[in-house]
Design goal:
Keywords: Coiled coil, Cytoplasm, GTP-binding, Magnesium, Metal-binding, Nucleotide-binding. Residues 164-186 are annotated as: Disordered. GTP binds at residues 235-242, 267-271, 289-292, 355-358, 375-377. This protein has 13 helices and 16 strands. It is elongated, with a radius of gyration of 27 Å. By secondary structure, the chain is an alpha/beta fold. Strands 8-9-7-10-11-13-12 form a seven-stranded mixed beta sheet. Strands 4-3-5-6 form a four-stranded parallel beta sheet, with helices on both faces. It has a three-stranded antiparallel beta sheet with strand order 14-16-15. The structure holds guanosine-5'-triphosphate and magnesium ion.
């Protein structure tokens, strides 16, 4: 049904990236899920229980079944083994009793902690970071997302390289190791070589990403040239961003604006999708749906997804979607704000959408300043959200009277397609139009203003 194996190149071995592969077809059946034990260190942090639950959900998103949770109360992790010696022995017995194939730690482990733990318990040890990276690796669809995840994985592997005594090739010469290097000096250790292989891969991926982003850049510039406001949906994973996007697209998208993928699982969305919405008065905006955030999102992944989150960073307005029915919504909001800061998203105007109110006993839709209590499944909520968005992004519209000479018929067509034409009257020297339009368009056609 599945194989769990340590990723092992001929000459590059890494401890905590475990590839979990499933055959097609039955990969999602319950019986095929590998079993694992979740381990966590309770240092007195407030959201400890929740973060252990979330670890199980992350494992489930990877089709791994957590059968038992083992925790220890300590002020800080034990340097070499994460848990104390006694606890590690206890864990070893549980691993044997439960017949699990892996242990998943709630914190990011050091390379030596992983090595030492694996040495005692004899099954693969993965940490939270490795798990998240693996989910992203499995889900990434576009070439850009795939490369970004690959880059994050390589950067994660780099400090985790190790070499066993038997692998050491202290007097390495010639062809005994792969990687395409010809210039391997005598005395270069295996680990140095491994590092160079990975560094080379990193450069290669970076280069490819740069080329892709050039063409992405062109698309973005085209959009920017259209001068449309950009609204970005951001927030914790599974909050309902894609569901809100779809509800808006259903009402205001053109027929070719496709629905995005929404599902009750962590990280359903990995690529940014942008859709255009057009309202009855011809006002238009671009809406982007983005990857969701999670506590302790691996730093390398944040780094890698900066360009995916370009839309968020350059938006005119953010809509932070919150799962209002989740008891941990406050820490999820804190994580979202922290992640936005880490990505370098400036302090943008923001609407906070307390979504999934239908699962709470709070009445909805209801607005309080920039906060909206709503449900993505409720038309009245979507209507109120649209009012709030319009109020914020179309405030720079101006209304003016124009006289367009008959020779400039293209301007009349432009207004009819892109602006809110309030009245048109034909006079001797052209068309007299009262138009509500963006400040940019006003500046562009100012010479026709009367
Ligand atoms: N009851 C209820 N369920 C909702 C609501 N909004 C979204 N959901 C459900 O919540 C789940 C997650 O929704 P998504 O829209 O995929 O969430 P997301 O924020 O895009 O998640 P990621 O892409 O993983 O970041 C789906 O099963 C939705 O049907 C809501 O207002 N009420
Ligand atoms: Mg989504």
């Amino acid at each position: 049904m599945y194989t769990v194996y340590k990723k092992s190149h001929k000459d590059v071995r890494c401890y905590n990236i475990v590839e979990i592969q499933f055959k097609d077809g039955d990969s999602m059946s319950e019986s095929s899920s590998p079993k694992a034990i979740a381990i966590g260190l309770n240092t007195g942090q407030q959201d400890f229980d929740y973060s252990m639950e979330e670890l199980s959900a992350l494992a489930a998103a990877n089709n791994v079944d957590i059968v038992e949770t083992v925790t220890q109360n300590l002020d800080r992790p034990v340097a070499g083994t994460y848990f104390g010696t006694g606890k590690v022995e206890e864990l070893k017995d549980i691993v044997i009793d439960d017949e699990v194939e892996m242990v998943i730690a709630n914190d990011e482990l050091s390379p030596s902690q992983i090595r030492n733990l694996e040495g005692v318990i004899n099954v693969a040890v993965i940490d939270r970071t490795g798990l998240i990276l693996q989910i992203f690796a499995d889900r990434a669809q576009s070439r850009e997302a795939k490369l970004q995840v690959q880059l994050a994985k390589l950067q994660y592997q780099l400090p985790r390289l190790h070499t066993s005594a038997s692998q050491r090739l202290d007097q390495q010469t010639g062809t005994s190791s792969g990687g395409g290097f010809t210039n391997r000096g005598a005395g270069e250790s295996q680990i140095e070589l491994n590092r160079r292989v990975i560094e080379r891969q990193i450069n290669h991926v970076r280069q490819e990403l740069k080329e892709i982003s050039k063409s992405e850049e062109t698309k973005r510039q085209q959009r920017e040239r259209q001068g449309l406001p950009m609204i970005a949906l951001v927030g914790y994973t599974n909050a309902g961003k894609s569901t809100i996007m779809n509800a808006l697209v259903r009402q205001f998208g053109t027929s070719e604006e496709k629905q995005v993928f929404e599902k009750n699982m962590l990280f359903a969305t990995l690529d940014t999708s942008v859709r255009q919405l057009t309202f009855g008065d011809q006002k238009k905006l671009l809406l982007s749906d983005t990857v969701g955030f999670v506590a302790h999102l691996p730093t390398h992944l944040i780094e890698a997804f900066k360009s995916t989150l370009y839309e968020a960073a350059n938006a005119d307005l953010l809509i932070q979607v919150v799962d209002a029915a989740d008891p941990n919504r406050d820490s999820m909001m804190a994580t979202t704000m922290k992640t936005l800061e880490d990505i370098g998203v400036p302090n943008l105007p923001m609407i906070v959408a307390y979504n999934k109110a239908d699962l709470t006993d709070v009445s909805f839709p209801s607005r309080e300043g920039e906060n909206l209590t709503m449900s993505a499944r409720d038309d009245a909520s979507i209507a109120l959200l649209i009012d709030m968005i319009r109020e914020k992004v179309f405030k720079n519209y101006v209304t003016a009277d124009f006289l367009i000479p008959f020779a400039n018929g293209d301007v009349v067509s432009y207004f009819n397609e892109n602006a809110n034409v309030l009245s048109t009257e034909y006079v001797a020297d052209g068309s007299k139009m009262k138009v509500e339009l963006t400040r940019t368009d006003y500046d562009r056609f100012e010479k026709f203003v009367v």
